[in-house]
Every structure is written in C-alpha cells, then in structure tokens.
Amino acid sequence: MEFKYDIIVVGAGHAGCEAASAAARMGSKTLLITMDMNKIGQMSCNPAVGGIAKGQIVREVDAMGGQMGIVTDRSAIQFRMLNRSKGPAMWSPRSQSDRKCFIEEWVKILTTMPNLDIWQDTVMELLIKDGQVHGVKTLLGVEMQAKAVILTNGTFLNGLLHFGKTQIEGGRIAEPSSFGITEQLRELGFATDRMKTGTPARVDKRSIDFAQMTEQLGDNDNHQFSYLDTVKRELKQMSCWITYTNEQTHDVLRSGLADSPLYNGQIQSIGPRYCPSIETKIVTFADKDMHQLFLEPEGVDSNEYYINGFSSSLPWQIQWQALKTVKGLENIVLYRPGYAIEYDFFDPTQLLHTLETKKVKNLFFAGQINGTTGYEEAAGQGLVAGVNAHQNITGGAPFTLARDESYIGVLIDDLVNKGVDEPYRMFTSRAEYRILLRQDNADARLTERSYEMGLADDYRMNLLKNKQAGEQALTEMLRTTSVKAKDINGYLNQMGYGDLQQTCKLIDIVARPNVTIMGLAETLPELREQIEALGARKEEIVESTEINIKYKGYIEREKLAADKLHRLDNIRLPKDFDYNSVQSLSTEARQKLSKIQPSTIGEASRIPGVSPNDVSVLLVLMGR
Question: Which class is 570-621 in CATH?
Fold first, then answer.
C-alpha cells in the first residue's frame, strides 16, 4: 500500500466522520484513521442527537450535504420537536437513536464512499516541516503522507477515566488513550489544558419497573433531521420514561462525596456547567429535594438503558445504592457504572475561522479537541474543517460561516474569538439572530453555498428549489386571495377572535396568532387544493411559509441588524499587526488583540475585553 493522501483525518467520532466524508465528497483522496473500525461514529454518552440549538446544527450539517442527519433519521427510535410551545426560533429537533444502528449506518456510508480509505491504528506523531504538516506516524510505525491533516481526537488525548478513587487510562471505557500528539504540539508552542466530562450508569431493562414511571412518547409527524425525501424513520419507535431522585437518594450520594474525584482533589480540570454530574447537582442545588431522570433506550434489540441526568464518577457501589432508592429502580441491575473522563484540549483561539491552526499550516482541529462538548457541535466543526482542508490544498476560497448565517458560524466564532473556560455547549441564547437561524430554514440558508462549493449535490439543490417554488406559490395565493367574512368567521370564532366585518386577504388572516394555514384549509376548499398541489412535502412547505408570514417583521428587523454586523466584518485588519504600539487601545484590548490577531474589525468587536471605544480606535486606524 502507498500511504499518500490529500487529507488524513485522525479519529472517527462525529467530527472525524463528517470531516472525512466532506473532504472525500469534494474530491480529495482522504484517509480516515481510527483505533477501532467497530466504533466508527460511536455515541460515547447518551444515545441521542439534537436538542436545544444542537438540533439546528444537525439540520445545518444536513443542509450542506453532511451525513449526521441521514444517519440519525435512519437509526431513530424516537423523534421529538422540543419547545413547540414557544416561537419557531426555539423549536429544536431531537432524536433517540439505536446506538448499534447509528454505527452501522455510518460504516455503510464511509466504507462505500469514493475517494475515502479507512485505516485502523493510533496516530502517535505529526510529520511537520517548515511550519507545515506533511502527514502522520502511527503506533504500528507507518508513516503516511498528506497535504493536510485534521485532528478530531475527542476525549482520547491522554484520556484518564475516574471510577471513584480508581483511575484507568482510556479515551472511553475499555478503549485506550492516545499519547504523543499533545506533547509534540506543546513543544511547538500550542497552549493546551485539561477538561472533564462524564457519563451515567447503563442499566438492564429487565430490572426496571416502568409502571412506576411516566411514559414519554415521541412525535408522529412529518418532522425529521434530513431534508432529503429519500430518508425516513424505519425502525420501531420506542418510549422514554421519567422518574425522580428523592432525599433518600441524595443522602446516599452525600455519603460518598469524600470518595468523589470531583470533590477530593483527584480531578482538577473543568467540567460542563450545563450537564453536571448528579453529585454536583446535590451540592450546587442543595435546596432541591428531587432531580428529574430520563430513562432512554439504547436500541430496538437491546436491554440496555441510559439514565439521563445521573452522570457520576462516584464509586460504583454508591451509584448502585443511590439508584435503588429511585422509584422504579428499586431492583436495578447495572451493566456498568458511570465515570468521569479527563482529556487534553487546545485553546481554540489558536485557530482561524476555517479551523486551520495559526501555528502549523494545513493542520486543522475539530470537535472536543477545541474544548466543545456534544456530538452535534463536533459534527459541525468536522464538516467545516473537511471543506477547508480540501479548499486549502486545491486553491479554493476559505469557507467560513457568519453568525447570522448558521449556528455553526456562531459556534466557531465564539471558539476562535472568545476561547473556552469550560466545555462549550451550544444554546439558542448564544445566537443574536436566532429568528434567522431556525431549524426549518437551514436549507434555504446553506444549501446553495454548499452546492457552489461542490459538497451539496444536484438532487439536494433541486429539492431546495422545488420547496422554494412551493413556498412562493402558496404565499402568492395567500397574498392575492380574498375571503368573505361569512366564510371565515366560524373558524375565527373557534380561535378566539370576533367576527370580521368585511372581506380580507388570506395572508392577513394567517398573520394572526393561533391561526394556521392547515386550520384555514379545513374551511376553505381553494386553499386546501393549493396545499394538496404541493405534493409529498406539503407539511414542510406550509410550516415554513406560515413562519415567514407570521414573523415577517421580526425577520426583517434581524436582517437589518445583521447587515450592520457585516459592515464591520468587511473591514479587514492587517495580519500580525502590532496592537501593543497603539496606546489609545485599552491595555486589555491590546493583550487580547495581540493574542488572537482577528482578521476583521467585526471579529475584534466580539472578543471579550474589546470595548466599543476600542472598536472606534480600530476604525480610525483603518481609515474608517
């Protein structure tokens, strides 16, 4: 074998899979290196994809031609659209997946993809010369040449597992750590630190008394992650179950705190604030007498259940005894206890917005190596890194996403400009323009850009055009069609409105709260005919059309605000500029700007510590 490639991707987690598939689909000869081909796309923690803001990221990945949405839909055993009681900017898709099927679907995609090879091994060293990466060297002693390398090592860099006082080297349970890369990059001047995450116990379904719990059903409608009409949910749909801890549970947990790695000094690194361990919950929220737990199935043919909300690194005996006090878990049998894991990450301010490192050319980082947490955040970074690695080596333009263009753009901009002091998790509140970044319109925002780059294919682009044509036709019908008061008052009365006194345009009726296009169609035959003419995707088209009508004013306002942002983002700053020489900048601004070296004034304005006055100074310096 001749190990010469355009791009090598190290690690086959969610970032690595998206990076490798994106680079290969764009035409680069790509190699994906993984420690275990049976763990490709492994769901290391919970068997679910999506959630608040995370679901929007998966829709964006899919809109650009990525694979996570497809894999998730094909492996889904429960789908829910979260936050439906709120406005559409907050709607977030989430899916439980069959863990085994999720891996199998990724393997099918990657092992049949043109331009992509897979090699099972561990990378120990990067081949770097004259400030540029040229390949990797593995544990088996194989030297592999590449024009670009993407590191997506997840939690494996010097990974250390904690089960109470017991410590085991590993990137995941029963999987070895990776050594060498952190030490090499530190010698080259990269700043690195440690982070911590954790996972709960897995339990035997046969020992759970579901009769004492509350059943949580999934949705059964048209929603899914992928925009492709060729992808459907085909597996048996399953329920999740809700139960709660109690004071007895908390007493058992408190009895083990002396042996908790989080509280006895064994773990020094920072854990995720928004996904705390159960022992952290009882300490931080000492006034709470209960905490909600979700029991999530691991698969259609599996007896394994995941206890969401009970992440722990306490000794296994304490975990087991505490779980036995929970209603429905009195006879619980563990498959394995929960544990914490510490691992190396690199300060993401050392990256460009393309996710290429500033210190080594054509070396890219994606996923938890950048201080993020979550499959979805990793997948979004992986796709961007894969695209830009291909663009770098083929002379293409850098591919970056703006904050008003995608949640992925918000994620990367936050990482590069602000860095991280805890594992980064995406929320809708991080996006200033979230009404523009809805889950329903990711295709309208991103598919055309991806198509122009060569990632999204003709089929996907035609789907978008057909959807947009349907939306335009429906909107025009609503705009031009008048309805008599006597034909609509019955429906309006049901919705809590008084009678109309005169003829009104349908689009003005749709703009009212609580009024729906589908509801109106039950009363108006001509509207019903228009909807049926939209074909198999009518629910998707109607939903998107209705959102654009109801929230038109808010959408236009956010677009104006985003335009102001773009003006600053269009003003370039010199590379390696000496900010320390500009005394009119604040001391903190000089320090932060010198460290991060932003590319534009817009990027500079989003760096913590750079004030509006500092931005004004930069504008004067740039002649603006």
Answer: mainly alpha
pTM: 0.96
Token pair for residue 153?
A: 């090592």
The domain ranges of the chain are 199-340, 457-555, 570-621
- Polymer length in residues for the chain: 624
Q: What type of residue sits at position 200?
A: P
* Equal CATH topology for 457-555 and 570-621: no
**What are residue 120's DSSP bridge partners?**
34
Provide the pLDDT for residue 275.
87
Third-level CATH fold of 457-555? Arc Repressor Mutant, subunit A (1.10.10)
What is the three-class DSSP state of 327? coil
**In this structure, is the dihedral angle defined by the CA atoms of residues 450, 101, 275 and 366, taken in order, positive or negative?**
negative
Burial of 529 (0-12, 13-18, 19+ CB in 10 A): exposed
Which CATH number applies to 199-340?
A: 2.40.30.260
- Give, in order, the Cα–Cα distances in Å from 42 to each of 98, 366, 483: 11, 16, 54
User: What distance in Å separates the CA atoms of residue 379 and residue 367, rounded to the nearest whole number?
Assistant: 7
Contacts of 342 (CB under 8 A, 6+ apart): 159, 160, 162, 194, 195, 196, 267, 269
Alpha-carbon distances, residue 398 vs 229, 386, 391 (angstroms): 30, 11, 6
Mean pLDDT of 394-404: 97
Q: How confident is the model at residue 624 (pLDDT cuts 50, 70, 90)?
A: low
pLDDT in tens, 69-97: 999 999 999 999 999 999 999 999 999 99
